[in-house]
């Protein structure tokens, strides 16, 4: 016997949803679909729905369109340029992030060199100061 889904709504226990709140039922049905999709692709998505939430955001915000049904060849052909565009945008964003990270690493590295140089000069000054003091006595 399958374990009950903790995310499912029991319509028998909550009949007021069916009677008065059609939009809420639509939202609950959409939620169940999202949970089912996340369960089906668990190896690609996160347990906390963050990845699928991000996917739904970029689709909902219009950054790219959801794929058309597989049986619609014309729609698939029209959708393909969108996929290419999004991949190019993603590659450019990734390259910019890598460049910024490299720049940050280089900046940090130079700061480290300057710190080490400062410490070396301080030690050299202390050594010279100690040598001068001992020479006077």
Quick take:
This protein has four helices and no strands. It has helices at 15-20, 22-40, 50-60, 73-136.
SS-based class: mainly alpha
- Please give the number of β-strands: 0
Taken as a percent bin, the fraction of beta residues is: under 5%
- Separate helix tally: 4
How many structural domains does the protein architecture include?
A: 2
> pLDDT below 50 for ≥5 consecutive residues: which ranges?
none
Q: Main sheet?
A: none
Percent of residues in helices comes to: over 70%
The quaternary state of the protein chains shown equals single chain
Order of helices and strands: HHHH
Taking all Cα atoms into account, the compactness measure Rg is 31 Å
Average residue-wise pLDDT: 80
Assign an overall shape.
Answer: elongated
Attribute tags:
mainly alpha, 2 domains, 4 helices, 73% helix
Report on the structure:
With 137 residues, the chain is mainly α. It has two domains: 1-63, no CATH class; 69-137. The protein has helices at 15-20, 22-40, 50-60, 73-136. The protein contains four helices and no strands. The protein is elongated. The N and C termini lie far apart (94 Å).
Topology, please?
Blueprint (H helix, E strand, L loop, with lengths): L14 H6 L1 H19 L9 H11 L12 H64 L1
